[in-house]
Every structure is written in C-alpha cells, then in structure tokens.
C-alpha cells in the first residue's frame, strides 16, 4: 500500500518549458520533474521498434532505440511528468511524493480525510487477505501527525467499504456487500465509529456491489454500483442490474438511476467543483469472473452536464451532453476526485493524472515510484493529496 503525500504550494510563475526532457522551468527540480512532449522528435517519431500494453506506463514501453530507452528511464525516476505547462503551476516546485506506510501487497481503497482530527480513514479491499472470500469487516485509521496506523471496527461492524466521502462531520460510505448482506449506503460517526445504514435497496431490488460515491454541496449522493465486488465473490448474491450510476436525494433518500453501462463497468465518480457536471470512469477493460484484462476494453473518463428545469431553472437528476473527456494514457482511472480549483485527479496504473475538465487534456502525471506501486484512490487534505493503493516501493 502507498499512502503518499503531495505537498502543494502556491502558484509560481514559470518560463514555458521546451521540447527536451531536461527543459523544465527554472526552480523545478530536474530529479523530480520531467517534461514530455511530442515537440521532442525522438518521442514524436520513435526510431526502431516500440510497443507497450495499454495497462503499462509509457515509460515501460519496449523500445529498441537506446536514446528513447534513456528518456524512459529518466521518466521512471521522477515524481511528476508534465504534458502541459499548466501542470507546473498546479503542482508547484516544492511538491514532493512521500510514502508513509508499507502494508502487505493488497488493494487499498475508500480514503477519507477527517480534518478535525487530522486522520486518514481507508480500507484494505478484497481478496487475497481479509476473512471469508477476501471480505473485510475492519478499517484502517492513520494519524497524519504521528503516522501511527491503527485498525478499527465500526458499531455494528461494516463489511467491505469500497468508497468514502467526508462531509459535515460524518463519513459517508458505500459497501460491496458481505457474506450475509448486499451493498448499502451508510454514515459513520468518526467520534464514536457508530454506523447508520441509510439505504440498502433500489425499489426493493438489491444493488450489485457499490464501488465509489461523491456528494454535492446540497448533500445529494452520486454512487457507482459496479461489477467489481460481485466479481470478486465478496457476497453470494447475484448481479441484479447492469453497472449503474445512481442519484440519491440526500434529504428524501429518493433514488434514481442516472446512467447504465451495458458494456463496461462503473468505478470512480466525481461532481465538478461548480456542481454542474459529473465525471464517471468506465473501467470495463478490467474483466470479472474470471478476472482479466481486455486491451480493447473501456478505460475512459466521461463527462456529463446536469439538465436544468425549464420552469424553475433548478438542477435535475438527469444527465445530458455526454462527452469523452479522455482515455487514460495507461491502465484506467479507478478513483476520481475534483480539486478546489476544478481539476480532475484520476488514480490508476502507476500514476495520479490531472485532467483539464473542459478540454479533457491530461496535464500531467504524479508518479508513486513506478514498479509495483499502483495508486487506486485519493482524497484531498488541506494542502496535500493522500493516495492509497497497492505497492511496495517508496520515494
Ligand atoms: C532534487 O530532488 C532530489 C530527489 O528528490 C533531491 O535528492 C535533491 O535534494 C533535490 N535538489 C534540490 C536542490 O532541492
Ligand atoms: C504489442 O503489445 C500488445 C499489447 O501487449 C501485444 O498484444 C502485441 O502482441 C505486441 N506486438 C508486438 C509486435 O510485440
Ligand atoms: C497508536 O495509536 C494506538 C491507538 O490509539 C495507541 O494505542 C498506540 O500507543 C499508538 N502508538 C504510537 C506509537 O503512538
Ligand atoms: C431533494 O429533495 C428536496 C425535498 O423534496 C428538494 O427540495 C430538492 O430540490 C431535491 N433535490 C434535487 C437535486 O432533486
Ligand atoms: C521503474 O522503477 C522502478 C523502481 O525503481 C522499478 O521497479 C521498475 O522496474 C522501473 N521500470 C522500468 C520500466 O524501468
């Protein structure tokens, strides 16, 4: 597991970078930063042979040209890869990536930052590990001041939390379901660890297995019901619907599907900073039952706008203006979050990418050390980005 901290400092003016990997703006550390652009002729037209799987990082491509191999090796030692000059401004010259905890090689998920106590809540997810069929009925708590990691159990215990959002003093979580229950939406009080289930069905139909959620400023929920937990046998129940994005009115708990995916899978989800758009990752390239990978499968980040009422002008739980923002350069985006400034942060492969919400350009990648390190989900702190995933190496 990696819990990494990206320290973000204020904006800094920058001299626009050039087309060589060493031409990063003044003030940025060349050991930590790479500027990658097709203005570099060696990258626009790669000499000799080259190939890579969509699931690998570009710098992990097999290349026959030794100069390109050297560029890839250089990229593999950095923490930040910029594809767009704006990325330098967004991250700033003083940012570093640090590994805080090394845990058994396993997926970690559902990070929630608790500002009052400076704690990071997260979980170990799925098999191998855990109890019955890889299930987990406990969670992790990291004290961010002392880096002391402890485990906890909610009251009553909560099985297989997969997504978490902190809002107004509570953790709002969704679960995959467990050995004796289907998935649900619940709140957890971090001062008592009491859990209250608030919704466990859709018109008396069970959910498949929740993957993630986000909330808007009004306290409404956007939840992804996905094949992932069901695919890993985390509960013995069936697959009642296709992967679905649900809207839940936080006041009335009335629930409505926003989007179905007949071919593909739902995963990360995030509401835009101004609340007018929704970003949804389709990670159908990751196959379930049996688990596997489909090079041609969806690895896409979609954007939608919310429709507004013609009579009242109010935002409606209806998606319009579907557009492909981008396809992940490597792997797919598992966790997706939006920063205060509106940038989309997507975790997957060996990176957390920053995506421009308007154009869909990937502005840059935050690397977590490469190799076996795989960021899975993220949450913003005050001036840090907390990342959980799977992996062994640190930076
Ligand atoms: C640049 O980054 C490297 C690697 O993180 C570090 O060892 C070095 O001290 C940094 N140099 C400066 C001038 O900060
Ligand atoms: C290139 O990589 C793809 C994906 O891993 C693989 O399916 C294909 O066989 C490779 N092609 C060559 C010529 O090696
Ligand atoms: C870590 O936290 C646990 C639970 O609060 C406590 O029992 C333990 O003493 C702490 N360890 C350290 C090294 O502070
Ligand atoms: C949620 O329900 C409340 C109470 O009926 C209503 O006022 C509000 O407009 C609803 N929100 C949305 C986004 O539909
Ligand atoms: C990148 O660096 C990591 C960590 O040192 C290493 O394990 C991995 O093999 C490297 N990847 C490539 C493609 O060189």
What does this structure look like?
The chain is mostly beta strands. The chain folds into 2 domains: 5-86, no CATH class; 153-382, TolB, C-terminal domain (Neuraminidase). 6% of the residues lie in helices and 41% in strands. The protein contains 4 helices and 32 strands. The strands form 9 sheets. A 6-stranded mixed beta sheet has the order 2-5-30-29-28-27. The structure holds 2-acetamido-2-deoxy-beta-D-glucopyranose (5 copies). Residues 220, 249, 251-252, 315, 317 line the site of one 2-acetamido-2-deoxy-beta-D-glucopyranose (NAG). Residues 29, 31-32 line the site of one 2-acetamido-2-deoxy-beta-D-glucopyranose.
Q: Write the CATH architecture name of the largest domain.
A: 6 Propeller
Tell me the Rg in angstroms. Answer: 21 Å
Task: Tell me the fraction of residues in β-strands, as a range.
Answer: 35-45%
Number-wise, the strands total: 32
CATH superfamily of the largest domain: TolB, C-terminal domain
Write down the overall geometry. Answer: globular
Using the coordinates above, name the CATH class of the largest domain: Mainly Beta
Q: Can you tell me the CATH topology of the largest domain?
A: Neuraminidase
Bound molecules: 2-acetamido-2-deoxy-beta-D-glucopyranose
Question: Strand sequence of the main sheet, in spatial order?
Answer: 2-5-30-29-28-27
Please state the structural category: mainly beta
Q: How many strands, which pairing sense, and closed or not: the largest β-sheet?
A: 6 strands, mixed
Q: What's the overall average pLDDT, rounded?
A: 93
Number of helices, where a helix is a run of at least 4 consecutive DSSP H or I residues: 4
Measured as a percent range, the helix fraction is: under 10%
Overall number of structural domains: 2
* Uncertain ranges: 1-20
Distance N terminus to C terminus? 13 Å
